[in-house]
Design a protein that fits this description.
The structure is a single chain. By secondary structure, the protein is α/β, with parallel strands linked by helices. The protein has 2 domains: 215 residues, P-loop containing nucleotide triphosphate hydrolases (Rossmann fold), CATH 3.40.50.300; 67 residues, 2-Layer Sandwich (Alpha-Beta Plaits), CATH 3.30.70. It has 11 helices and 13 strands. Strands 5-6-7-3-8-9 form a 6-stranded mixed beta sheet, sandwiched between helices. A 4-stranded antiparallel beta sheet has the order 11-12-10-13. A 3-stranded antiparallel beta sheet has the order 2-1-4, covered by helices on one side. A hairpin with a 2-residue loop joins β11 and β12. The protein is elongated and about 75 Å long.
Length: 308
């Protein structure tokens, strides 16, 4: 079996005596996408930069595609694509196609630069100087620069910052295709919907420590109290409905004829609600299910109270 795309054990990085990454461990299997989430200063970018070989760890071990990012940097770099927060860096005087061709010249088997510009929807900006591209266009060019070498592993640091909604969704589609082709991805983002849409697994960092990890579905389901809403005739006996539902459920008539069931949302709960309504000759109209989002989980865990 090949080594994991990324394997980190007890990683520590300190600045001025303060641990900005505090004994974290994680594994990214080949072909999967890991989203690193956290507030500013949580340690996301530092962790990625250590994996990329741009910073050295103070302690712990890091292996990327089975290699040490510092000691084996020359062997590792051709296999990895990197999209930095500052996008295209200092190459603002070059034209978009020229810059992409320059980065392609560093690769053994680069992708076609013209075709890659078209893939990221920048074909019309091929001859435009980088400094004249919008922020979103520069982000898409930076993504193309990370892809030009046909990497096995992509590090994407806030890849869709500055993009309009259409460009964001186009970028999401491209990332999905890369993952389907077996490319491993480590992504940081402040967009919780982005992580929910793309990630196989999510790790939430707060003050340099991991406070939660799992798939988006696992994180939103664990200890989640969801809500089921429906409309029916006013004055239903909510106590009897509550008694027909799993223990811990709460039922209220929030407005005349409008009902709210608060409980862990499961197929059994929905079946119990509809079965009870049927037994009462009641039609539950407009039944909707609301569950907490990844943003709800993130906010709960990264507030001062939730992170203690």
């Amino acid at each position: 079996m090949p080594a994991p795309a990324v394997e980190i054990r007890d990683l520590v990085k300190r600045y001025a005596g303060r641990a900005v990454v505090d004994s974290i461990s994680l594994t990214v299997p080949r072909g999967q996408l890991l989203a690193l989430l956290g507030t500013n200063g949580a340690g996301k970018t530092t962790t990625i930069e250590i994996c990329e070989g741009f910073r050295r760890a103070d302690s712990g071990s890091v292996r990327v595609l089975g290699l040490d990012p510092v000691a084996d940097g020359a062997r590792l770099r051709p296999k990895v694509g990197v999209m930095l927060q500052d996008g295209v860096g200092g190459y603002t005087g070059a034209r978009a196609l020229e810059l992409l061709q320059l980065f392609g010249s560093y690769a053994a088997h680069p992708l076609d630069a013209v075709g890659l510009l078209d893939l990221v929807d920048l074909a019309g900006a091929a001859r435009t100087p980088v400094k004249r591209l919008s922020g979103g266009q520069q982000q898409r060019l930076s993504l193309a620069m990370a892809l030009i070498s046909r990497p096995e592993l992509l590090f994407l640091d806030e890849p869709t910052t500055g993009m309009d909604p259409q460009a964001r969704h186009t970028t999401w589609d491209l990332i999905r295709r890369l993952r389907a082709d077996g490319v491993s991805v480590v992504l940081t983002t402040h967009y919780l919907d982005e992580a929910e849409e793309l990630a196989d697994n999510v790790i939430m960092l707060h003050a340099g420590r991991i406070v939660a990890e799992g798939s988006p579905a696992e994180l939103t389901r664990t200890n989640a109290v969801g809500q089921v809403r429906f409309s029916a005739r006013r004055g239903l006996p909510v106590e009897r409905l509550r008694d027909a539902l799993p223990v811990g459920s709460a039922v209220t008539e929030v407005a005349p004829g409008h009902y709210l069931v608060s409980a862990e949302v499961t197929p059994e709960l929905l079946a119990a609600v509809t079965s009870w309504c049927a037994s009462q000759q009641v039609l539950a109209e407009g039944l909707t299910v609301e569950r907490r989002s990844l943003e709800d989980v993130f906010l709960a865990l990264t507030t001062a109270e939730g992170a203690r």
